[in-house]
Amino acid sequence: MLAVPFRKPLTEQDDLTAAQAGDHAAFERIVRRHAARVHALARWAGGGDDADERTQDVFVLLWRKIGLYDGRSAFSTWLHRLAINEINSAHRSNRRLERNRDGHRHTEPPGQTSAADRVELEDAITRLPAELRQVFGLHDVEGYRHEEIGGMLGIPPGTSASRLHRARHLLREALSETK
Amino acid sequence: MKYTPCLRANSPEIALYVYDELESRARDEVELHVATCESCTTAASELADLRRRTETIPRDVLSRDIVPRVMGAIRDARQEPRPVSRRSGSFPRAMQYFAGTLVAACIAGLIVVRGRNDTAPNSVGSRSDSSIGAPLEASARALAAPGAATLDRTIAELEAAAAKSPGDQYLQRLIARTRSDRAALTTQVRVITSSVR
Fold it and tell me: What is the value of ipTM here, to two decimals?
């Protein structure tokens, strides 16, 4: 029988080992695999407008720190913690900068009522505490399940569910007050 | 929001009902309650409004160029000198000291070896000629001393940084390279001093 050369597909562990040794192609595969979730985290944990920039910062940091990953936890869990820390620290410094500027606010775009409704909601979302905003955005906007959000934020799924309930309650109150 | 006399109005089950997250039996039960309770009807309608508005927010879209951008940023970061730690900024200067010391030590070594070769055929006693050897030995040690001290400091600094980042392979490589440079310097000084003697 003719032997067909068989190449074992590369696993995440193969890519991690290669990336830790400085392999760019392996690192690029890791970026492709995790970019969507890191970007969603950057959108909801950070400011939102600069999610691309935050995502880029997270992966540059990952490139520098990938040697520290020792396999004791799942790589995605480790990466998401790294991402959350980086995004939160960037978000804190951005907020400090914003406080130092003049009282700049987003202006409501003119036009349809639905656009105004959305702006009102987005404004209410930005005023939510960060931990509630993250869960609300990831669940109700992005469609992640509580188990996935728990993995991304390092919290139990039940905590994610209770934060979501609290976020919805606060948003409902905020929107009904503006009516 | 109006005052809600019904405790169920703020309970998760009304939200779960509005967001279609209840099983059919529980859903029927909540639906029946909402139909007969004014405060729960208000709560359900406000939550439905929140849900409708939330659906107008676009889901996150990953830019097509995000991966090339990330890889470009990493390539750019590689071309810059890679920061080892906040405290290790003196490393390039240490290398300059070391290189200078090594070159000086090599020159001194060459002078001594040539001196030995020149004097050896004439007289055995010239080996112990301290009028030439001692100053050269002293100057080799003096030249090597600042470089050695700087390298020792650098090793200590790198080891402190490595203790904070245990898995950092780049730091480990730097430590190994610096230790090897330090050993080379020691060997060089030993060669010079032994050849002078």
Answer: 0.75
